[in-house]
Amino acid sequence: MNKIALSSPHIEALEPYMSARRIGGSGEVWLNANELPFPRDSMQLDASQYHRYPDQGPDQVAAAYAAYAGVPPEQVLALRGADEAIDLSIRAYCRAGRDKVLVSSPTYGMYRVSADIQNAPVVDVPLTDDFELDVAAICARDDVKLVFICNPNNPTGNAFRREDIIAVLRHFEGRALVVIDEAYIEFCPRQSLAGELSNFDHLVVVRTMSKAFGLAGVHVGYLLANDAVMSIMRKVVPPYPLADPCAQIALLALSESGIGTMRKQVEEIAGIREAFCRTLSNLTAVRGCLPSAVNFVLAFFDEPELAWRALAGAGIVARGIPDRRLTDAIRFTIGSEEEMALAASVLGKR
Ligand SMILES: *Cc1c(COP(=O)(O)O)cnc(C)c1O
Description:
By secondary structure, this protein is α/β, with parallel strands linked by helices.
């Protein structure tokens, strides 16, 4: 097919996000997208309003999520995943070709993709050698409009020091929006900055039900912010951001029993993670494992090609990270006990 020469040059040059599903792979053991390994039971949904545009649903979901997150309902916007919250923040605050977005690599790849789509320049202030925020270098960038902090960080699995995040928040007060992506916060709830919304007007917190809540296939996420920011976001958000069936499923997951199930599964995953890391640390093939607060771990290998081959041979799909400091690292989502035992045994064979 001939290319139609009408598209924007910056879109033609764009590298789309390589999602785990897009990269694909062959195998039965999927440890590459940070999903929960636990399938859900079927749910009885109410189809009586499917012929109407969803109206009340998103507000009910936002209210239920607000109760769970401990913030007022007007500080919550329910969206199609955390990715939509990231995209919305950039589109609402960054003028194309002008307003810059700061990221700290290695981190979640969608910040850069969403910035590229908006044609907002990206400034990378890499994490320090021990994968902490480089606060001084970040605060030296007074030319940025939006700062992304992924806390805990994907792919390194660590939560940043609270005082570092607060220092960044203080510095950019009145100058830039600070967006804290808490996609994995259920695995370490005390690290949340949502409680700081009452102190900082320029703070945005991003959440999702794709990870700890085990609902990646339903794709519901949230943007948490104060009135001033929220009124801007509400101008940009599409009129029907949540489909009715998704809203119903989210509401069930946010019920008391739904939250209880999530907490139990988070605990189970943490146990499997600790056992997996202990086993990996004892393998000669593994140089080390970063301490993880979440449902994935980053492991470093002396001979990563051998590890990749061993995993592929056993039908295990894990994730490589396109970062120059992580060429010998593999990120493993914590799956079921059996899946992690298989992964560890395959990596231990020589
Ligand atoms: C998975 C992930 C997301 C995307 O979440 P969705 O709600 O599925 O769009 C956002 N941020 C980080 C850091 C993630 O790992």
